[in-house]
């Protein structure tokens, strides 16, 4: 539904001698229809610029952007204006018109597309019902809570029945409870309307609760990208570390400390109990949890395996778990993923194990 290739955007800092800032540095991105894709990254990573290039609020210096099969980067102004109706956008600070009521704010999006008055009234009522604000049509933004303001923003963004919704830190200004209710609404809209959502965020909760796919962005580039459950099993995944922080020592006297990740149905298997029973060993769990993510069930633990851990690692991998050392041995770039052998490949021969 969204296809970005080789996207690059630079800015010139203020002043005649301003240096060039590369905000987006060659990003490729494909968001499938109906997916919720989250781009995570620290401040200045380039997330907002990337998002604004998707609806061409910023014109990229290089690369292509296509939404719903239409290459926006190739359109003239008039055609681009029309194509933008198929892309809704919501903002961190809601961007509502303070002089208009809730209904007036939503109607505004229909006025600019030339929808007739009666049809507008009907559609506004429908949209407010969709976002759970039917009773507040005549309220002004100043009379609303943050969550209600964002609901107006969502209703307005959906006015022209877009297939794609862009979300720019939509929950960053909200408290955790309100964040949860807005995320539930977005997920509901995604499922009921088949809405494809591309969002940028720095909040892990957002990825946990609604994203099927994600990318981690740093210095204008994607350092990892794909379905969340795939990323969790990827060697050295930053997303895995941030979604499931393992706050525990990475060494244990006389034992091998490993980080184990399981996703999907494997996360339901009482893997650790079964490991202890089958090999007749005790396996201290130093940290970890199993959680229900939007992308599916996933679990991650830090374990202290007896001795060199080879038998236990073999067993865990044969059950579909991804196993990596808690501390990488010094001097080895990818010690647990020797070429030709994926670290999470079941049944890795024991001589390949550390
Ligand atoms: N209009 C602009 N003019 C000059 N530099 C800009 C402009 N917009 C963004 N930048 C620079 O581009 C880089 C990426 O900024 P961007 O806002 O896209 O990052 P971000 O990940 O969204 O961060 P934040 O969450 O703080 O907005 C930063 O170095 C920023 O200073």
From TrEMBL:
Residues 2-244 form the ABC transporter domain. It comes from Paractinoplanes bogorensis. This is ATP-binding cassette domain-containing protein. One of its GO terms (molecular function) is ATP binding. Residues 328-354 are annotated as: Disordered. The keyword Translocase applies. InterPro entries: AAA+_ATPase (IPR003593), ABC_transporter-like_ATP-bd (IPR003439), ABC_transporter-like_CS (IPR017871), ACT-like_dom_sf (IPR045865), MetN_ABC_transporter-like (IPR050086), NIL_domain (IPR018449), P-loop_NTPase (IPR027417). Keywords: Amino-acid transport, ATP-binding, Cell membrane, Membrane, Nucleotide-binding, Translocase, Transport. The keyword Transport applies.
């Amino acid at each position: 539904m969204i296809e970005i290739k080789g996207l690059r955007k630079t800015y010139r800092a203020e002043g005649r001698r301003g240096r060039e800032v590369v905000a987006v540095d060659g990003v490729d991105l494909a968001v499938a229809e109906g997916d919720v894709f989250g781009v995570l990254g620290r401040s200045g990573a380039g997330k907002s610029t990337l998002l604004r290039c998707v609806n061409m609020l910023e014109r990229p210096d290089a690369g292509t952007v296509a939404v719903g099969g239409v290459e926006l980067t190739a359109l003239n102004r008039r055609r681009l204006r029309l194509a933008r109706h198929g892309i809704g956008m919501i903002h961190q600070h809601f961007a509502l018109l303070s002089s208009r009521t809730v209904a007036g704010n939503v109607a505004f999006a229909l006025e600019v597309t030339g929808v007739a008055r009666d049809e507008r009234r009907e559609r506004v009522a429908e949209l407010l019902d969709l976002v759970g604000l039917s009773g507040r049509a005549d309220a002004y933004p100043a009379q609303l809570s943050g969550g209600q303001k964002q609901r107006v923003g969502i209703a307005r963004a959906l006015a022209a029945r877009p297939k794609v919704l862009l979300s720019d830190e939509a929950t960053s200004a909200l408290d955790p409870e309100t964040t949860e209710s807005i995320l539930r609404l977005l997920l509901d809209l995604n499922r009921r309307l088949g809405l494809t959502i591309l969002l940028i965020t720095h909040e892990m909760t957002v990825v946990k609760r609604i994203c099927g796919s994600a990318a981690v962005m740093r210095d204008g580039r994607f350092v990892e990208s794909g379905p969340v459950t795939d990323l969790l099993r990827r060697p050295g995944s930053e997303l895995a570390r941030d979604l499931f922080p393992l706050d525990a020592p990475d060494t244990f006297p006389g034992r091998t400390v490993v980080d184990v990740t399981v996703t999907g149905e494997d996360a339901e298997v009482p893997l650790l109990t079964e490991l202890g029973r089958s090999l007749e060993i005790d396996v201290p769990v130093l940290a970890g949890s199993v959680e229900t993510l939007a992308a599916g069930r996933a679990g991650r633990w830090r374990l202290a395996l007896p001795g060199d851990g080879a038998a236990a690692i073999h067993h865990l991998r044969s059950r579909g778990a991804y196993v990596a050392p808690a501390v990488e041995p010094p001097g080895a770039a990818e010690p647990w993923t020797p070429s030709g052998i994926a670290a999470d490949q079941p049944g890795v021969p024991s001589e390949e194990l550390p």
